[in-house]
Design brief:
The chain is an alpha/beta fold. The protein has helices at residues 5-8, 29-32, 36-46, 54-57, 64-73, 90-105, 119-124, 127-137, 142-159, and strands at residues 21-27, 51-52, 75-82, 109-115, 164-166. It is 50% helix and 16% strand. Keywords: Cytoplasm, Hydrolase, NAD, Nucleus.
Length: 169
């Protein structure tokens, strides 16, 4: 993985108890990169917490999907920032499925943050999540329908975890 200035201060993997990253941030960049996620990332790094954020850690010229998958496997804690357009992104939904898979196989911690969205909308694909899933379902073949069902199950699992609901903050 490429090293960035923000991760160099805490790049020692010996502090991660066998993991390459203490924390993996899953978020929709357009919604929160410059706001909540940006501030959270800066504060985690300032406290010496080795944190994966896609724009800082992805290897230039590398295969994004495999780099993200590897980073998820190499992380101990996952913070999922559910925002209005999170479900619009197939990348976010595929990350979420991988995170939930790691959570069930390993002793990982998953912390959902519901950023200006209702946890019930995440759990039941209501509101903007419903709109996103209707769009994903357009012209879906059997394979795509299976993928959509997997995404729905991952959202339900994550939304049933104890987390933080941030409204108007």
């Amino acid at each position: 993985m490429a090293s960035s200035s923000s991760s160099k201060a805490s790049s020692s993997t010996s502090n991660c108890d066998g993991y390459n990253y203490h924390v993996f941030l899953s978020f929709r960049g357009e919604d929160t990169r410059q706001t909540f996620t940006g501030h959270l990332y800066a504060n985690l790094v300032a406290r010496g917490i080795h944190t994966f954020r896609d724009d800082e850690e992805l290897e230039k010229g590398g295969d994004i999907a495999s780099d993200l998958s590897r980073a998820i496997e190499e992380s101990k804690i996952f913070i999922i920032i559910f925002s209005k357009h999170y479900a619009d992104s197939k990348w976010c939904l595929n990350e979420l499925v991988k995170i939930i898979d790691c959570m069930t196989k390993e002793e990982s911690v998953v912390l959902p943050v519901f950023y200006h969205v209702d946890p019930r909308d995440v759990r039941n694909q209501g509101g903007s999540f419903k709109d996103a899933f209707l769009e994903h379902a357009k012209d879906a073949d059997q394979e795509k329908k299976k993928t959509i069902e997997t995404w729905e199950n991952a959202l339900k699992t994550a939304a049933n975890l104890s987390g933080y609901h941030l409204q108007n903050q």
